[in-house]
Write a structure and sequence with these properties.
PIN domain-containing protein; mainly alpha; two-stranded parallel ribbon
Length: about 70
């Protein structure tokens, strides 16, 4: 996915870039129709830029677990 490379190469000022492994994981999940279960802001960033990537934060998936501050 060329857009994955664009996300990594051109992060917004003050924003972190997703790592190569994060992008490979997202591309694989998107290609197989899977959801990325995570606790890492980089995956939220990728999902905002690439709508075909579906993510779910672990804190949102488990009832009774406090959300991070």
């Amino acid at each position: 996915m060329d857009r994955h490379r664009a996300v990594q190469a051109h992060p917004r000022r003050g924003a972190r870039s997703a790592g190569v492994l994060d992008l490979v994981l997202c591309a694989t999940a998107a290609a197989r129709g899977l959801v990325v279960l995570h606790d890492d802001k980089d995956f939220d960033t990728v999902a905002r830029v690439l709508p075909e990537v579906s993510t779910l934060r672990i804190t949102d998936a488990l009832p009774g677990r406090p959300a991070p501050a």
